[in-house]
Amino acid sequence: MKRGRKAHYTFYDDLSADSEADDDDDGPTPQRTEVHTHVDWTRRDTGPSARTTYHDLPASPTKRRRAQSLPPPTHSNDFVDLLYDPEREAIDLDYLYQQIEDLKDDPQPRKRTAGDNPVLQWIPEADAYLAELLRLEGRGDFTTGVCQCGGDALARYRCDDCADVRLHCEACVLSLHRDHPLHRIKSWDNEKKFFSRVTLAALGLNIQLGHPPGEPCICPRYPWGKEFVIIDTSGVHEVNLTYCGCERAQPHYIQLLRARLYPATSQSPRTAATFQVLELFHLLSAQSKVSAFDFYSTLSRRTDNTGLFTPRDRYPALLNIMRQWRHLKMMKRAGRGHDPSGIAVTPEGSCVVDCPACPHPGKNLPPDWETAPKEKRLYIAMDANFRLKRKKVSSDEVDPGLNHGYAYVVEEKAYKAHLAKHSDLVTKPSDLCNNHDAVKLAHAKGGPHLAATGVASVDCARHEMKRPCSTADIQAGERHVNMDYVQNSSLRRNAPRRVHFSYHVNCIYKINIGSRYAHYGWEALSENYDIEWCVPRFHINAHKEFCRAQYNLLFIPFSGRYDGEAIERLWSRTNGIAASTKEMGPGSRRDLLDDVFGCHNWQKVVLLPTSLLTRIKKAVPERNAQVIAFQQYHAVLPADATSRWKLMVETWENNRSQSNPYLVKRPAITQAAIKRQLAEEDAEAHKAGTAVVLHDRFTASNMIVAGMELEDAQRHLKTDIAAMSTHATDLQRAKMQERQNMLQRRIDSWFTIQQLYTPSVVTRRSRMLEANESVGHTYNLPLLLPSATLDDPSSLSSDSLKTIEWRLRYAQAFDSLCDLRGHLEVRTHLYKHKDRFARGQRANTRAQTVIKQVDGKINADVERYHTAYDTLQALAAPLSQTEWRRYLRPLLAGDVRHITEGEDGQSEGRRTMSWIWQACATPVQTGSATDVGDMNESLQESLRIEWCQARARAFRWTEEVDLLQEEMGRTTGFHEWLAGWWMELVSDSGVFLDKPDYREGADAYARRQASLRLAMRDHCLRTWKDVSAWVHLGEEEQIDSDSDDELIPIQPLPESDEDM
């Protein structure tokens, strides 16, 4: 028999001196040491070599335990073969771990030093800093007034933008600034004794275009009105500028562009912006979401912050310039300048920054990818964002877009034609799931002042990137006519056949999608795509239990560990521009969205090496832990049961219409069912002549059922009276009094019937009313059901009455838990809806009011359960009931939480689920002995669900590791393909054949882009060079499993270092 094995081992050998310590307890404890390994790596022609040395160093008392390793999958991977050769020299484990640990999640705290708080160091020197700032207001060391040129002119000019703080004469300052005409100059006033602002234009500096700086033009041409304004990072400058009027002079706008000044108009420009300020604002607007107004206001204040010399207003000019700049930058980066056809014939979706890790047929997939054993899947998610709304300002005629579907936003004309043709298609609510706002409010959102209530989009769900032609305006809520168009437009761009499609109402959205596509005249989805419908992990908790089992990403094969919520995180990064786009015209808004989405995608591409490395670093140990846990759990279960469960899971995975093995079959034990059973039993007893009839209309069970209903009515009345305002109107008080009167009459009638079955309660109730006046209130009247008279020796309640109440209370407990779970789901959804869409005091107040109403229902459910539980506890001993405690527990305050919430202080990794979500076993219904077969069946179901979920966790983490490796290979392949594409433009482009200077620039740009992509590929390879070894670590030490069944392609690790 093989001995047991540990589930993990550590990489770092801790060789302490404990085993060599003296046995004498009185002697000093020797210092604990450990061996540190130092590896020197050298690159040679024959390959890498290593030299290992060992050093004895004191052990760190707070050293963090090394993470466990992960054995490899059994299949091969092209990327693995590229980066890892098992035949090469063995990699040192410590070195490998150190490489992977470059990205630390939880760095150990170090001893703090004074340098960790530079402000505390600065405070004593603050006066010195202030003195230096004041010194710069004067001339400093240059008080003689003599210029460095040695001339007679007074040196009184200083430049704020140059590193030179010396003072110069007028001639020198003009000579020094021929190449810097936008620097800010100050002049020292000998009479007033301070520096004042003066412009280079006022000193006579002229900017001559079409010639090198300092070279005059023999035929200069002045701008219209001889006025020209340049917007720069240093401010808004009025300058002297002349165009070249020579025989071969270029048009004015060309002369400005060659001087790296972007003209506001192409005809007679009088305003321009430097390329530097455009690049700065372009980056700021995409990264920090700075509006053009705020940016221009900053430049204006940088020019003059006193209001005494306000510069000319060129804000409208900056808006037009930036819009053109963004468009041209997009066209340039997409290679449109290398196409002889130009911008006008740009294909839709061709100007996007593609996700390198997603599958792109013909780009980063092998030629035989469709027949490869491993299926290539695209993971996308769809959602709507109601923050990116637009008011009804301007129109497409006045403000047309420059990007006609070239990037991320769909082509507007075709989209509007689709909406106009199919506007009669109504999104109908469905009772298959909960009442989701996405369906309920599909036609209710919006208002007369909004042209767009938001945008709908389909994005990459694994890497949080925008997809081409996958974003469009929505005019109300998430109508199917809008969402279908966005989905179809996205799938037609580089989508393989197999697609994982995540949407938070997929359970309803997918139902009639085939008929809707046929209504639109589109090809059926099933003909071109095999779609796996999923619900994001956060949203799925707001769905019914069937949806949580049917569309859960944890249970769906090939889902890996993506959560489907990437699009929500992406919205959070783009919502910053909502304040700007809300006031824009339709074309400007679409162009800005395209630009912001492109910037976001590029940032994701740049960070992709680090993000994928971080994810696989976490996934590898987690995969190992989940696989080991599943194998250990599998080993202790009967083989015939696990084989049957495995067949159920595989059958469901191949055909979703089959029985779902993850679906919990909750008990059908409700008060209504028990009432029906009691009525049927009364009818059988009456038919058999054994019924004890004391009233012509009420049996014993009818009496107790009516009593429990009155108890609920009392509870509701008490809650409503407590919630009534002290300033309630007379009408409100009258209605409340009428309710009390009606309930009092019902209770009095019930008391009459109760006396027939339990006569002794009359005397006890009278004593209770005399002892406490507050008991006399209608909502406090003691009903004294059989469970309330157990401590009364004179009580004559029979065991049959106690059994009837027991059965009803048992069902009431499960009813209360069911209602409590539903109200917790509603409250969680309301909080999420409030956080996403409630803006402003009015909307937040309304949302809080609704949430308080749900909180009241939750409190009522808790109180009802407490009543049922206390009654069961009282009746358990007289009726000899014990099994009920297996299914019901005391409901504490900490137990009343959503299924996704942990206890206070629990992190996500240590979160435990409240027991109320597990109260689903078949409960004991009667006082008879529990049927052993039912118990075994219940136990079998619990074991099956846990086995299926453990298997799903192991498979999903295994898939995640495989997916990450495949995505790494696709990323490097995409960069290499794109580099080749750019190089093809160098040789095959037919542009600028008769203009060598233009051709050289176009070829240089293409070569630079190709070099950039190759550098990014090499960076990825360097970053991931140890990933395959990390995944394959421990391959040689694996030992075959005791089980002959192949569970999943991962084997357990050896028990200890002796096995290695």
What does the model show?
By secondary structure, the chain is α+β, with helices and mostly antiparallel strands. Helix content is 44%, strand content 10%. It contains 29 helices and 18 strands. Strand 4 (185-189) and strand 5 form a beta hairpin. Helix 7 (275-287) crosses helix 19, helix 19 (586-635) runs parallel beside helix 28 (996-1023) and helix 21 runs antiparallel to helix 25 (799-837). The longest helix has 57 residues, at 932-988. It starts with 32 loop residues before the first strand and ends in a 28-residue tail after the last helix. The model is unreliable at 1-29, 61-91, 921-936 and 1034-1060 (pLDDT under 50).
For the biggest sheet, the summary is: 6 strands, mixed
Give the overall silhouette: elongated
Rounded to an integer, what's the Rg over CA atoms? 39 Å
**Rounded average pLDDT:** 80
Strand portion: 5-15%
Poorly predicted residue ranges? 1-29, 61-91, 921-936, 1034-1060
Strand tally is 18
CA-to-CA gap between the ends? 19 Å
